[in-house]
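It would be a great kindness if you could assist me with a short task in structural biology. The matter concerns a single protein, recorded as an amino acid sequence and a row of backbone structure tokens. Could you please explain, in whatever detail you think fit, how the structure tokens follow from the sequence? Thank you for your consideration; the sequence and its tokens are set out here:
___
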Amino acid sequence: MKIHLLWKKEEIEERHINEDKIAVVFDVLLATSTIASCLAVGAREIIPVLNTTEALRTKEKLSAGTEEVLLAGETDGLPVEGFINPVPSILNRRASGKTVILSTTNGTVAIRKAASAKKVYTASLLNGEAVGKRIAGTHEGETVVAICSGSRNNFCMEDYYGAGYFIHCLMRETDDPELTDSARSAQLFYENMKEEAVSVLTRSSVGRMLSDYGFYEDVAYVSQRGIMDVVPRLNGAGTVLMDERDSASEHGPAETQRYHL
């Protein structure tokens, strides 16, 4: 297995992401953490969109009743008018059994840009171990690209840390993987700071911004490592679901109440 890392979504291009690659997208604050927590509390599916205009258009196209579809979105960390704030403390309470159309400044854009890969998974600190185990068990010998979403063309420390955690977990499950320097550096960063997850996230630019907006508890919540066994994967229709090897009986709402803030 070969493991590579992209520092931000703007680096995604055909030579990096194609049908020969397995992509794993990280937006620890907050899109991929939100996706994991929504699926853990029983959301039916997550539809990542590029912007709020596409979100509204997507909702119009869905045949389900409006009570079955939630619009969640933020721009630069602030909720969009008419959308649910996509932080776990708010969205988790409403997501069970629902389709969630999710629009975020960076994470959902990165997921969509990575769609040309053979498989696209989303991961965070919450579920990085589960995603690592799944990829090790199903994609032996393939090239895995960890994608840090970043923030408007800027590097984000929390995504780098989350990718390092995932790589650390993946390496425990594989024999002698080949890491590029970018992937190795993320692994080493995580291993040197592995007991400092809350500190890393709260000291990041996005973490400080969310804390200033009153969402410190959400930042602390998503700093928990490996507490969820959900493996979200983008399907051909552009929807993020549990990977096909997950069953509803394993992840029903009765077993996921502990994931609520």
User: Anything to note?
Assistant: Residues 185 and 242 are 30 Å apart (CA to CA). The mean pLDDT is 91. The chain is about 35% helix and 20% strand.
